[in-house]
Amino acid sequence: MDMIELDGRQGEGGGQILRSALTLAMLTGKGIEIHHIRGGRPKPGLMRQHLTCVLAAQTISGAWVEGAELGSTRLRFVPGAVTSGDYHFDVGSAGSTTLVFQTIALPLLQAKGASTVQFRGGTHNPMAPPLTYLKRSFLPLLREMGAQIELDVQRWGFMPAGGGCWQATIKPSVLSPISRLQRGELLNCRLSAYEVGLSNQVAERELQVFCRSAPMAVTETRIRQPKSSSPGNLLAVDLHFEKTRICLTELGRPRLSAEKVAGNLLKQVNRYLQSDAVLDEYLADQIMLPMLVAGGGEFRCDGLSDHGETNRQIIARVTGREMSFQDHILRL
């Protein structure tokens, strides 16, 4: 079999290339060979969460794989047919389980039967979509396109301990293109502060700071203490518009004050509301592969991140299909 060769130093030079390439290989049946994996990162090569993505993809597709080792900078991956089943994937660290999910979800939607997939590891990590964002921003879009996916969360897992546990039920689905070019009027805004094992009234301070400077009326505030294996904090705002919904999140971290967390989320909200975008830059990146499966679609975005541009390049390289981004509209 001819292998499609990819350079892991391309674009943003991170794990995005690996994950998108694995998904595309399983969707198209094409073999891929990646050199210089994560070549743009201070520590190149496969880390635990990246290796888990490879092993998960290998498991569901019966793939032949070469180079699936920690630290490996080269990978060859030839998929077989994607098979439904009951799967369990453990990152073995606080590495992101949501990125593992996004690697295998679309191929499993194409399988002949339903699958249940249990994930263990990190659920709320820096530099990865938090599970909360996945549930309330990414998955609603996929469901609008026709995806039948449900999540059951048993336990959150913050950095650095991880230990999160959740399950996805993925049923065979046909995705259809959708168009989202306008948000409409803002109807509702809910602000949620999640905290586990923290003192000094972190959640209350975050709510107060955000509401005091919010550019819109906050119609509901709430504090939640989710079940978690380790201490942690997340601030999330759900914005419900006439024609769309989005959840923006900011992860608390050690030595980052409650006031700073709230301020960072306010910056996100201000940037989003001052634009005409329907998707934020993260959703713009994440919706590209579902658009490919659906065979089309169009979304208004404020801009594309380095991840997004790299994703466009990988899709074109593997499939030959060009995804356009003009006048702030992403189209296929």
UniProtKB/TrEMBL annotation:
EC number, UniProt record: 6.5.1.4
PANTHER family: RNA 3' TERMINAL PHOSPHATE CYCLASE, RNA 3'-TERMINAL PHOSPHATE CYCLASE
Domain RNA 3'-terminal phosphate cyclase, chain residue ranges per copy: 11-323
GO BP: RNA processing
Residue ranges occupied by any RNA 3'-terminal phosphate cyclase insert domain in the UniProt entry: 182-273
Protein name according to UniProt: RNA 3'-terminal phosphate cyclase
EC top class named in words: ligase
Gene Ontology MF terms in the entry: ATP binding; RNA-3'-phosphate cyclase activity
Cellular component, GO annotation: cytoplasm
SUPFAM superfamilies found in the cross-reference section: EPT/RTPC-like (SSF55205), RNA 3'-terminal phosphate cyclase, RPTC, insert domain (SSF52913)
Residue positions of the active site: H307
Family assignment from sequence similarity: Belongs to the RNA 3'-terminal cyclase family. Type 1 subfamily.
Source species: Gynuella sunshinyii YC6258
Gene name as annotated: rtcA
Pfam families documented for this protein: RTC, RTC_insert
Catalytic activity: a 3'-end 3'-phospho-ribonucleotide-RNA + ATP = a 3'-end 2',3'-cyclophospho-ribonucleotide-RNA + AMP + diphosphate
Protein role: Catalyzes the conversion of 3'-phosphate to a 2',3'-cyclic phosphodiester at the end of RNA. The mechanism of action of the enzyme occurs in 3 steps: (A) adenylation of the enzyme by ATP; (B) transfer of adenylate to an RNA-N3'P to produce RNA-N3'PP5'A; (C) and attack of the adjacent 2'-hydroxyl on the 3'-phosphorus in the diester linkage to produce the cyclic end product. The biological role of this enzyme is unknown but it is likely to function in some aspects of cellular RNA processing.
Swiss-Prot/TrEMBL keywords: ATP-binding, Cytoplasm, Ligase, Nucleotide-binding
Cell compartments where the protein resides: Cytoplasm
